[in-house]
Write a structure and sequence with these properties.
alpha+beta, Alpha-Beta Plaits, 4-stranded antiparallel beta sheet, two-stranded antiparallel sheet, 19% strand, globular
Length: 198
Amino acid sequence: MPYNPQIHHRRSIRLKGYDYTQLGAYFITICTKARQCLFGNVVNGEMQLNSLGHIAFNCWQAIPDHFPHIELDTFVVMPNHLHGILIITDKPVGAQHCCALNQHLTHNIEKFGKPIRGSISTVISSYKGVVSKGINIIWQTKGQSIWQRNFYEHIGREEKSLDNIREYILNNPQRWADDPEKPQHNSDIKYFLFDIPF
C-alpha cells in the first residue's frame, strides 16, 4: 500500500529543519527487527560474525563505493544492531541541483517520502535495502526487511565528542553481556524472523 498521510501517521525522528547532506560526522545506530540476533554472537567480549553478519559488515564497508562523498569511520556490527560513524566530506552530487530548483530554501530539508540524494537517510535506506536483499537471497525469501523501521543518529560536532563515540563503538562487544535489551538466547540457526507480524 502506498504512503497515505491520511492513514499513515509515521513521525520522523530526524532533527526538524536539519540538512542531512551537510558536511560532518554522523553517529548511526541501526537495529534488526525485534532486536533479533541475526549477525552472530559475542564470545569473550569479541564479535564473531556469521554469514549474515559478514553481509552487514561488507555492505557497510562498501558505502563509499556507492556514495563517494561519504567516508567511513569506526563501526561495529553487533548481533542485533550496528553502530557506525559516517562522515560527509563533500556535498553529494545532486544536492546543489536541488537547491538551485528551490532557491527559496536555504537547506536541503528532507520530508517523509521525499528523500534527498546523498543524504544520510538515503545512504542508510540504501544500506538497509542491500543487506536485506542479500539475506533474502540466502534465505530464499523475497522482500523481507530484517531491520527495524528508521535508524538513530547523533550529529558529532566536536572532536572530543567523536572520540567518546569511537570509544563507545569499539567497546560495544565487551559491554554486550550487560546490555539490558540483549535477547537471552543467541542462535545461529534460521532465526524467527517470519514469526513477526509485518
